[in-house]
Amino acid sequence: MATNGWISPDGVLYACKYWEHIDLAIFLVRKLKLNESESEERVLEKAGWIKLQMSNFDSRALFYRWIGFENDYEVTQKQFDIIFDWCQLHKQKMHSRFKVKE
After folding, report:
1. I need a surface site. Which of 13, 15, 35, 81 has the fewest CB within 10 A?
2. Residue 84 to residue 2: CA distance in whole angstroms
3. pLDDT at residue 67 in the model
């Protein structure tokens, strides 16, 4: 399983290298024909995607969502499952704030 990428709302991990999240976001936004009114990363995050990044400095997992969202840690069940599996595989602690959308 990849260490970096974007997790779609349906739980698919689209892999990229450590510094390639923006390039992948541009590709995904255009492929999915999403509204490009903001940066491609924000467009994906507002559409429910999660940015996954394994820190090169301390091997810590980082899961990003746009900070302005009130329910920043609300994820789909499929996203929760992939994050859980990813954390188990990479020996990372899963953030306790993650909640599955009802």
Report:
1. 35
2. 14
3. 44
